Protein 1
Amino acid sequence: MSILNKVLKDLDKRGQKPGEAESVGGSAVAGPSSRTPWVVAIVAVVLLVIALIFGALSWDRWVENETVNTPQPVQKVSEPEPVESTNNFARPAQTETQTEAQAVTQSSSRQQPAEQHSPAAEQSKADQSTHAAQVPPASSRAEQPQATESTEVDDEQEAVPESEVEPAPTLVRKTVQLSPEQVITREINAAKQTAEQGLLSEAVKHWQKVLSIDPGHIEARRQLAALQFGRNRWQEALAVLTRGLEVNPQAHELRLLAAKMLDKRQQPQLALTMLKQAQPQASRHLEYYRLKAQLAQQLNQWTLMADSYQSLAQAQPTEGRWWLGRAIAAQQLAQRDAAIRFFNRAKELIQHAPTLEFIEQQLNLLVDQDEATSS
């Protein structure tokens, strides 16, 4: 616009209107030829094309700013007015000057947007710098989708369904409170295993552990006493059995085991004394009465022998050996008639030939004694 104003001022100073010819030295200067308007029109068109190119560049820049979400004031490019072809010589010149001024103004506004000092421009500049720091350049943004796509493909290739993924093994240590019965079962199993392996000392410890929990455990006392006796610690074995009888006097299994140990230690009298302390049911403790009768016969205690075999014969009436024992005890007690009756009963039940021969000898002996006495 400054160039256009300058031209107008120069015309005013000369006192001429646009289109009038100047008189220099009394001679008139002819105006532009008839071809001048067409030349001016072509120049105007060229300038218009240049202005459109600058406008397109300015539009591309605005589109980039919109991509990064940075609001920027858009300068509206004013299109030049269409040039009218007339015969007026000053009008085309004015139009050409105005078009050049607008082009210069638009070019300066596009090249130096930072020189604007309006609040909107400063705010736009600040926003643009902030987003520029956060958003990568256009070239890197163009490459970013490809990198993301490749990453997603790798993730899909490496992804494994959760159902096929085996969880990592984890070691969890839990404290389980066992009941006394469970502890006893565990110690019994451990005692049997160590005894089979020949670790008698370890087996003894396990059995002692059982008895510390349940002092009345009969099987544990029997096993512990047997281990101690096998290790030639018979006194400790007897102490274990005696302690068990104090806890449970009806534990006749412990009494029988103690009597067997004393008998093996060549102490039949102590063994018989041990058995005489109780009178269990014969049908449930046949071994108890058998050992008692055997010890009584060994110690010539015929009455105790007769009573023991009588209990056995009552428990098992079809067992011939019990009747044979009764017959021998009656014979020693001079009960001839009872002895003959018991021998005959044993003869009916026993199938062993040597035993039958012995029974015949004793019957003949009793008959001879009866004849001798009667004569």
Protein 2
Amino acid sequence: MRRTERVRQLLWRWRNNPLRRHDDVVEAWIVLAMWLVITIGGTLTGLLTAHAADASFARLRHERHAVRAVLVESTARRVGIGADTPYDRVRATVRWTAADGSTHTGRALVDDGYRVGSKVVVWLNSKEHLTTEPPTASAAGVEAASLGAAAGVAFGGLAFAAGRVARWRLDQRRYDQWGREWDQAGPQWRRKTT
């Protein structure tokens, strides 16, 4: 019996009630629509964002390729940088041979601690320009999921804010209506009965 009372309390705005106002029904539909948009729209937005991010990361992995290069300058640790530094990569000048046999030189991020002439791996894009290493499939999956979750939460937040603004407008309308009704009823209460 207690469960039916709880359901009745939750659905009070839709019950036929002499105290129910039109604004109460409108507010109930706004709340229902807001939660549907948050759950369905937020989920779809999150899934679409995660899928798009994953496709973008897959395209990066497909377009970029690793080549062997030779260091032109040393990346040995500089004075003042301790061994426990979080930066294990530095920018250095490297030389590599392209697929057509031509030699190129440029600056790339390489591991710290190598001397001139050491062999390192650098990454090139489809135009044979130096670029960063693409994310691994697992890292891309985690990042795509994070982006999708953030997009879903952001969409849900916007939908919630829109619903709150609509409910605020209804409240303002009700306050104005109550003010007009009080202006009519208030003078009758002030009359003295003797």
